[in-house]
Amino acid sequence: MKLIKLNAIDSTNSFLKDLAQNTILENKTVVTATEQLKGRGQMGTEWSSEANKNLLCSVFFRFNKLAISHQFYLNFGVALAVFDTLKKYDLPKLAIKWPNDILSEKSKISGILVENVITNRQIQSSIIGIGVNVNQEKFPANLLQVTSMKRQLEKDVSIDQLLVDLVAELSKNIELLEKGAYKTLEKRYLEVLYKKNTPMMFRNRQSTLFMGMIIGVTSYGKLQIQLDDDTIKEFGIKEVSFA
Question: Which of 31, 33, 103, 161 could form a disulfide with 6 if both were Cys (CB 3.0 to 4.6 A apart)?
Fold first, then answer.
């Protein structure tokens, strides 16, 4: 793994994307930053982080053969890599919240942003951005359900060691992906999916509340919710939220 360490930067994903466009990157090139000024999450959301307290990284992976139709299996693998890394640290009640937030005791501890380069319906490479709240203890007042490893474990955690552990888990799951073990990744993802098979309230894009139960995720990434009348409806990112 080639490691590039930076101080304050707009976004590790943006930096690595620019680098990939101008140079031939070594596989598993990793960029870390002590602070992100414009950190990005899913669908343009922002990632807020205190300087020098958290793991902010992006990893470049090149693929030999990965069809665009399998891109959400990549998301499964990445989310599981973060989940399994954090599990090694004995964090309580870990779960993956669709599509790929990691929760500890129902509070967000990690976020993921995967950006793919696609040619002829094949994923040529991916930039996998991961933020983990590590040693930060105070968060903005508007962020209610967030936590950190230090909050949960009541001790400091080595950010450098966490990065090593994370890249090892990512590499393991990327290898499974390239071997075609899609169903293995899907099965494990669904086993740790937050609120699966639990009746609860949701809110749709029109802010209408409805009762339903998560029963799965499609291979193209949509959340499957069983409604009160037993019909199953699929929702994309930003089409539904937890009420």
Answer: 33
| Domain assignment of residue 185, given as a range | 1-190
Collapse the DSSP code of 62 into the 3-class scheme (helix H, G, I; strand E, B; otherwise coil) and give the result: strand
Distance CA 224, CA 175 (A): 27
Indicate the SS3 state at residue 210: strand
User: What tokens were used for 135?
Assistant: 């040693």
Note whether 45 and 146 are same-domain residues.
yes
Q: What single letter denotes the amino acid at residue 45? A: T
Task: Return all residues near 104 (Cβ < 8 A) that are at least 6 apart.
Answer: 86, 91, 92, 93, 94, 147, 152
For 27-52, the pLDDT digits (tens) are: 999 999 999 887 555 545 555 689 99
Q: Is the same domain home to 79 and 184? A: yes
pLDDT digits (tens, 9 = 90+) for 126-148: 999 999 999 999 998 888 899 99
